[in-house]
Every structure is written in structure tokens, then in C-alpha cells.
């Protein structure tokens, strides 16, 4: 059980890294522009955006594990 969990966990971390890294690889100039815009956003907006993403992520995990 423990070995399978670690294998699954490493798979998930790897997939997250692929998804997170792709835009920087494929569109480096656009990502620089986007990061600059994110730095200018108010903290409250970023917190709401992060919270919404967490809720969506938890929902996907819940649906995927059923």
C-alpha cells in the first residue's frame, strides 16, 4: 500500500510539473508578460483566484477518486 501511494504521489507531482512548465517552454515571452500582470494585481484578487483554483482542484480529485 505504501509503495503504491508513493508511486501515485510521484506521478501526480510529475504531471503537475509538466502542466506548469509547458507554458514557460512554449510561450516564454507571453509568460513574462503574464507574470508582470500578476505582480500588479491586488492581493485580494490573487487570493480569490487561488481559492477558486483550490476548490476546482479538490473537486477534480474528489470526482476522480470516486
Characterization of the model:
This protein has 66 residues and is an all-alpha fold. The chain has one domain. Helix content is 92%, strand content 0%. The protein has 3 helices and no strands. α1 (2-26) packs across α2. The longest helix has 25 residues, at 2-26. The two termini are 18 Å apart. The relative contact order is 0.06.
Keywords:
66 residues, mainly alpha
Mean pLDDT: 92
Biggest sheet details: none
Spatial shape = flat
Proportion in β-strands: under 5%
Uncertain runs: none
Could you tell me the radius of gyration in angstroms? Answer: 16 Å
Number of helices: 3
Total domain count: 1
* Number of distinct beta strands: 0
Structure classification: mainly alpha
Distance between the termini: 18 Å
Q: Give the topology string: H per helix, E per strand.
A: HHH
